[in-house]
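Comment on this:
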Amino acid sequence: NGSMSMVLMFFHPERVETYTCIPWGQSADPESPHHMDQGRKLYSQRKFKKIAESRESLMKNVTRTVLLETD
């Protein structure tokens, strides 16, 4: 078993526009607000979310950051 996501890509002459949807959410923790958020808000409504096209647009939606260090 593995993860699944749906991706729509529109190739315009000047850019690529990308949308995704995961039938459940990003978290396996049932207590997390992201456990089934995409399933309820997107998949069940047959909707997709737009992927950020730049770092600036991505950072507008960041809720937390985690720094990973190697040995």
Observations:
- The chain has one domain: 6-59.
- The first helix runs from residue 37 to 41.
- The beta strands are 6-11, 16-21, 49-50.
